[in-house]
Automatic annotation (TrEMBL):
<feature type="transmembrane region" description="Helical">
    <location>
        <begin position="157"/>
        <end position="176"/>
    </location>
</feature>
<feature type="transmembrane region" description="Helical">
    <location>
        <begin position="294"/>
        <end position="311"/>
    </location>
</feature>
<dbReference type="InterPro" id="IPR000620">
    <property type="entry name" value="EamA_dom"/>
</dbReference>
<feature type="transmembrane region" description="Helical">
    <location>
        <begin position="104"/>
        <end position="124"/>
    </location>
</feature>
<protein>
    <submittedName>
        <fullName>S-adenosylmethionine uptake transporter</fullName>
    </submittedName>
</protein>
<feature type="transmembrane region" description="Helical">
    <location>
        <begin position="62"/>
        <end position="84"/>
    </location>
</feature>
<dbReference type="Pfam" id="PF00892">
    <property type="entry name" value="EamA"/>
</dbReference>
<feature type="transmembrane region" description="Helical">
    <location>
        <begin position="210"/>
        <end position="233"/>
    </location>
</feature>
<keyword id="KW-0472">Membrane</keyword>
<feature type="domain" description="EamA">
    <location>
        <begin position="183"/>
        <end position="309"/>
    </location>
</feature>
<feature type="transmembrane region" description="Helical">
    <location>
        <begin position="268"/>
        <end position="288"/>
    </location>
</feature>
<feature type="transmembrane region" description="Helical">
    <location>
        <begin position="239"/>
        <end position="256"/>
    </location>
</feature>
<feature type="domain" description="EamA">
    <location>
        <begin position="38"/>
        <end position="171"/>
    </location>
</feature>
<dbReference type="GO" id="GO:0016020">
    <property type="term" value="C:membrane"/>
</dbReference>
<feature type="transmembrane region" description="Helical">
    <location>
        <begin position="182"/>
        <end position="198"/>
    </location>
</feature>
<keyword id="KW-0812">Transmembrane</keyword>
<keyword id="KW-1133">Transmembrane helix</keyword>
Length: 332
């Protein structure tokens, strides 16, 4: 299967700590191309996701991360149900999937990935967690061959290698600061990549609304089976943080949907990396995190490699599309 210029997931840190919107390969091009406004919305979404991570860390320091994620997913499941119910076919259409086991696996993997991310926020901080997690698109490219049977050329393999060199710069294994905790965002990135690849797989048979519904419902059910054993009532003031967390989640997803209606996903995805800027500001100002030079340099390497991979995928898909549909055929 050729590379798709419109990956069905948000391959960025923005989606890591919140269930991302599904953007399937079969989704039609925007009726009105308002790229400038769409880019502005994506940058705003990245800021809101940064605020969401702020609330996640505050709550994750006071309560078990699995409890925080469970409550988030309850609200997210309600949001998904309400949104899907308003679509053509409603809930009855969304429930019908040709790949139920894969859809369930997607939801479970994403829910567990969010738990790992919140744990990483608490142990490592926002800056280092997001810097390492930015490797997720490279994991997607590396695994697209064995998982989906796609061809990955030498240029993208080179970018993948360069990106992982950036991870080594961030983790600084020779500096005596590499710990088991530092592996958490790397594990989260791998889980998110698997989620994205499974999403691309099911998109061949299920429409976007079906995958979106199963992401919320399967994830909420799975995380409840684990998180309910950690149940405790939040302190009155902490419900304020939880409300902010849930509001940010719903707002960001709505704005993300709107942005994808206005412009191509391949155009918007590089701007999702602006979340690294927001979380760096939040980490330094709110949590007194230190912006170490090796983290800045390593993150720049990883982001550059990730953007190259996304652009290369887009160029390759456009070239294959042109070859399959020559000008003579298009003019008829």
């Amino acid at each position: 299967m050729p590379d798709d210029p419109r990956p069905p997931y948000v391959a960025s840190a923005a989606a890591a700590s919140a269930p991302p919107i599904v953007v399937p390969p079969a989704m039609p091009r925007p009726v009105r191309d308002r790229t400038g406004l769409a880019i502005g919305l994506m940058c705003l979404v990245s800021f809101i996701f940064g605020m969401q991570d702020l609330f996640s860390r505050i709550l994750g320091e006071a309560y078990p991360p699995v409890l925080v994620v469970m409550i988030r997913y309850w609200v997210f499941a309600l949001f998904v149900t309400a949104l899907v119910a308003r679509q053509p076919g409603g809930l009855r259409r969304a429930i019908r999937t040709k790949r139920p086991l894969t859809q369930i696996a997607r939801g479970v993997i994403l829910a567990l990935e969010v738990v790992v991310m919140v744990e990483a926020f608490v142990r490592l901080g926002l800056i280092e967690t997001h810097a390492v997690f930015a490797v997720a698109p490279l994991f997607v490219a590396a695994l697209s061959g064995p998982v989906l049977g796609e061809h990955v050329g030498w240029r993208r393999w080179t970018a993948i290698g360069v990106g992982f060199c950036g991870i080594l710069v961030i983790l600084n294994p020779g500096g005596g600061v590499l710990t088991v905790d530092a592996i958490l965002p790397l594990v989260a990135a791998l889980m998110f990549a698997l989620y994205g690849l499974l999403t691309r797989h099911v998109s061949r048979d299920d429409p976007a609304i079906v995958s979106f519904f199963w992401t919320g419902i399967a994830g909420a059910a799975a995380i409840t089976l684990i998180g309910i054993w950690e149940w405790q009532w939040l302190a009155p003031r902490d419900w304020f943080w939880m409300a902010g967390l849930c509001i940010c989640g719903m707002t960001s997803h709505y704005l993300m949907i709107r942005s994808y209606e206005m412009a191509e996903a391949s155009v918007l995805q590089p701007f999702a990396y602006t979340q690294l800027v927001w979380v760096s500001i939040i980490g330094v100002v709110v949590f007194a995190e230190v912006l170490r030079p090796n983290v800045v340099i390593g993150a720049a390497i990883v982001v550059a490699a990730g953007i190259f991979t996304l652009l290369r995928q887009r160029w390759k898909a456009a070239r294959e599309g042109s070859a399959a549909n020559p000008p003579a055929a298009r003019d008829r």
